[in-house]
Amino acid sequence: MTAFSHLFQPIRIGTMIAKNRLLMSAMSINFGVNEKGHVADQLIQYLAARARGGVGMMLVGGGGIHPSGVELPHLPALWEDDCIPALKRLADTIRPFDCRLGMQVMHGGRQSYHDQKVAPSAIPAPAVVRGVPRALIQEEIHMLADAFGQAAGRCRAAGFDFIEIHGAHGYLINQFLAPNSNQRTDIYGGSFENRIRFLLEVMAAIRKHCGPDFPVGVRINAEDYIDNGWTLPEALRLAPILVENGAAYLHVSAGVYGSRQLTIPSMYVPQGCFVDLAAAVKAKVSVPVVAVGRIKSPRLAEQIIAEEKADMVALGRSLLADPWWPAKADAGAVRRIRPCIGCCLGCIHTVLRLEPGGCVVNPDVGREYLLKSLTPAATPRRVLVAGAGPAGLAAARMLALRGHRVVVCDQDAAPGGALRLAALPPGRSDLAELIAYFVDQLERLAVPLRLNTALDEVLLDEVAPQLVVLATGSLPEMPLIKGLYRTQMQLCTVTEVLSGQSDPGHRVIVWGGNQAALVLADYLAERGREVTVLHPGRHFGEEMSSNDRFYLRERLKNGGVTLYKQVVVESFLADGVRFAGEMGDVLLAAFDTVVLADNFAPLREAANLLKARGLPSHFIGDAKAPRHLMYAVAEGEELGREL
C-alpha cells in the first residue's frame, strides 16, 4: 500500500478519471517545436518521460491560440489545422502510460514577446515584457474567443483528454479580469460582470467546438498581488460562475509579471505558498480544485489532500527535477527523489531570456530525445573522485551507475563543498537537499565516501585508481587593492565566515556583488551586523535568476544592508575605505571587518601529484572554472556518461 493514500487515489474530472491526484502544470519550456510551432520529438519525449514517471494528468504548456498572443517563440501553435498530426503523435505516445493529457490554451496579451501585442487596454505590462499593446476592438475580442474554441477543438481531434484555459498570471484573460489592465468603457470593462465576460465567451466557444462533455478546467488567479489587480473576493465570486458555465475543475494560482509575490517563487518562499488560496476557492465550489505553489514534498502534497484544502496538487518544477517523483512517492522512496531547489535558473530565468528551458539539478531536461538508456562501461575502471561537492558527487553517482568502481574523498568533515556553505544563509536551505540526495544515491550504490581525507600519496597508493576526477572546487581570490593588506580591520573570506573559521565584527564591509556576496550580507544582517556591500560591477547577483534575486534584494532592503555598485577604490584605510561610485566620492569609516566575496580561483594543485604518477585526470566543476551550480552538476553527469 502506498505511503500516501490520499495522493494516490483516483479522481473524476468531469467525464474523465485520473489515476491519482497529481497534475503536471503547464510550463512554457520554450523548446520542442518546429519552425511552424508544431510539436516535435524533443517535446514529445520530454513529456513522455514525465508520463512514464507516474503523474496522473499533465498539461502541455503555452498552447498559443492566435499569432497575436504568442507568449514565447518556441511554444506550440494551435491556430491552424496542420498542427493536429503532430499533436496526435504526442497523444499516441502518452496514452500507454495511463496519463490524462491536456493542453493549456492561452493568449499572452500584453505579456507576449513580440512587437504586435494586443490587450484589453493600451497599457504596458508592469514588468519583464516591454512595449505598449494595442487595445482590442470588439470584433477582435469575438474572434479571439472563437480562436480559443478552435484551438481546443484541434486538441480534442488529436486525442487529447482535456483542456485548461489559462486565465491567470497576467495573460490576456487575466488582463480582462483585472482593473489595472482593463480600463475599457464598453461591455468588456468596468463592472465585475463586464470584466469576466471574455472568459465566459471563451468557455462557450470551447463547448461549441469540443462538445459539452469534454473536460475543460480553468486556471485562475486568486490574487494578482499588485495594486488595483484581481483579488481574492472577486475570485471567490467568479469560481461558482465558472462551474455554472461548465468548468470541470479550477486550478488556483496567483501573481502576474511585476507582482509583489511572484507567480513562480524561489527558495525564499515557503512551500505550499498558494495552498490557502485554493482552500478558499474549494469552499465555494463542488468541482475539484487544484492547488499549486512550491509543492515539492510528497508529505506536503498528501497533507493538502488529506486536510481537504484541495482535491489535486500541481507539480511543475518538481517534475523537471525528477520525472519519477510520482512513482518514487507512491513506493515510499521519498529520499530517492531528486529535489527541486527553487533556484528558478534553468526553468524560468533562461526561458525569460528566450532560451530553451532546463533544470539546474537535472541536466537531462530537454535532452530526453537524445539520451539513450545508460549502458555499462565497456571497461570498468577504478576511479577516484577528489571532492565531494556537487560536481564530484554527480560524477561519482553516474560513474557507479555505469559499473565503474568509485571512491570519493574530501578533506572536509562533511560532504557538499561550497554548496554546503551556500545552504547556510537565510532562505537557502533547499540547496542542502541536493547534497542529501547525492549522498543517499552513493550509499545505495555502495560508493565509499571518505571524509577528512586529503588527496595525497598515501590515498593514491591505497586506492590505486586508474583514473582521477578532480572536483576540488575553488576559493575566494585575494584582490590587489590599495591599502587592503595594511588595514587594521579584520580581513577574511566568505568561506571562512560561513564555515565558522572567522567571526566578523559589528560593522562589516563585504567586497563583491555576486550571489556569494549578497547571501553573505543577508547572513550577517540577520545576525545583527551592520553591513555595507561594495561591488565593482554594474549589476548585483547577475548569475542568479531574476526570481531568486528579487526575494534576496527584498531581504537585503528590509535588513538595512547598504549597497554600492560600480565601485572604484581609492584606498582601504585603517577602519574604512575611500572610493568613487555611481553617486560620487564616498568615505566609509568606523568599520571593523572586510569580507572578500568577489572572484574565486580554482583549486588545481592536485594535478601536479597526478602528473608525477602518470595518472589520467579530468577537472570538473569549480576546479575547472568557478561558475554556477548548473554547470557543476551537468559536467559531473556528462563525464560519468562518457568514461
- Rounded mean pLDDT is 96
**N/C terminus separation:** 40 Å
Q: Which strands sit side by side, in order, in the main sheet?
A: 3-4-5-8-9-10-11-12
Strand content: 15-25%
Question: What is the CATH superfamily label of the largest domain?
Answer: Aldolase class I
Biggest sheet details: 8 strands, parallel, barrel
Number of strand segments: 27
Cα shape:
globular
User: Structurally, how many domains make up the residues?
Assistant: 3
Task: Provide an overview of this structure.
The chain has 3 domains: 11-352, Aldolase class I (TIM Barrel); 382-458 and 618-642, 3-Layer(aba) Sandwich (Rossmann fold); 478-598, FAD/NAD(P)-binding domain (3-Layer(bba) Sandwich). The protein is built from 21 helices and 27 strands. The longest helix is centred in the first third of the chain and has 20 residues, at 138-157.
Could you write a compact summary of the structure shown?
The chain is of the alpha/beta class and 643 residues long.
